[in-house]
Amino acid sequence: MKTCTETLAALGVDFEVRVSSAHRTPAATQEYIMDAEKRGCRIFICAAGMAAHLAGATAAHTQRPVIGVPIDSGPLQGMDALLSTVQMPGGVPVATVAVGKAGAKNAGYLAAQMLAIADADLHQTVVADRQANAEKVAAQNASVQASLT
């Protein structure tokens, strides 16, 4: 999840991190969700390894957007976490990103894009970041093309 927090920080999005378990600490998880909402939390990003499904448990206790990040752990390397995250019942959505590091990074971007709908400054930051990434790819392509000639 480090790439998620790095992405949020780079985009200037305030966040907090909490380690919780939908199965081992369900009451504390629910209490945290309720408290976070009272403090103004607008989006929850939840990681889950193996078949654990913190995002689903979180979505059951909030109407705020929830993004699930399946972690590539355990004998199935995140496939079990992916399947448990994407199989939410109708009416209790969880946005699901890719398994592992890329998914964690994309969760940060997706949260920023959601927040940017109502924040013009954040929208401009996200647009500028996307442009900078495009320019990096173009520069890499130019470098590769130059090395081939």
Structure notes:
- The chain has 149 residues and is mainly α.
- The protein has one domain (2-119): Rossmann fold (3-Layer(aba) Sandwich), CATH 3.40.50.1970.
- It is 54% helix and 9% strand.
- The protein is built from 6 helices and 3 strands.
- It has helices at 2-10, 26-38, 54-59, 79-86, 101-116, 120-148; strands at residues 44-49, 66-71, 95-96.
- The protein has a 3-stranded parallel sheet, with helices on both faces.
- The chain is globular, with a radius of gyration of 17 Å.
- The N and C termini lie far apart (40 Å).
- The mean pLDDT is 95.
| Classification by helices and strands | mainly alpha
Question: What is the percentage of strand-forming residues?
Answer: 5-15%
Count of distinct structural domains: 1
Q: How do the strands of the widest beta sheet line up side by side?
A: 1-2-3
Compute the average pLDDT. 95
CATH class: Alpha Beta
Helix amount: 40-55%
Briefly note the CATH topology name: Rossmann fold
Shape: globular
CATH architecture: 3-Layer(aba) Sandwich
List segments where confidence is low: pLDDT < 50 over at least 5 consecutive residues: none
The total count of helices amounts to 6
Q: Report the strand count.
A: 3
* Gyration radius, in Å: 17 Å
Biggest β-sheet description = 3 strands, parallel
